[in-house]
Design goal:
This protein is α+β, with helices and mostly antiparallel strands. 15% of the residues lie in helices and 27% in strands. The strands form 2 sheets. Strands 1-4 form a two-stranded antiparallel ribbon. A two-stranded antiparallel sheet has the order 2-3. Strand 2 and strand 3 form a beta hairpin. The two termini are 13 Å apart. Bound molecules: iron/sulfur cluster (2 copies). One iron/sulfur cluster (SF4) binds next to helix 2.
Length: 67
């Protein structure tokens, strides 16, 4: 069951896999996959936006979740 409707969305092509977003996420919802890009677990994400603020490449947006 998803918590909240706003979710972090990551432009994975532009992500530099620095891990800053994963470190600040209070829900542990972000993981760096294969050392290449960050991925959000939407079931854990509460849309707080901390990751978007922390991303040095500004590739995270907070979007309304589908459905
Ligand atoms: S919006 Fe908040 S809960 Fe969701 S991934 Fe970013 S830091 Fe984590
Ligand atoms: S902070 Fe931004 S660039 Fe760094 S891993 Fe997260 S999404 Fe990618």
């Amino acid at each position: 069951m998803a918590v909240g409707k706003r979710k972090a969305w990551i432009d994975q092509k532009a992500c530099v896999a620095c891990g800053c977003c994963a470190r600040v996420c209070p829900k542990g919802a972000i993981h760096i996959l294969r050392g290449v890009y960050a991925q959000v677990n939407e079931d854990q994400c509460v849309g707080c936006g901390l990751c978007a603020k922390a991303c040095p490449a500004s590739v995270i947006e907070i979007r309304e979740a589908q459905g």
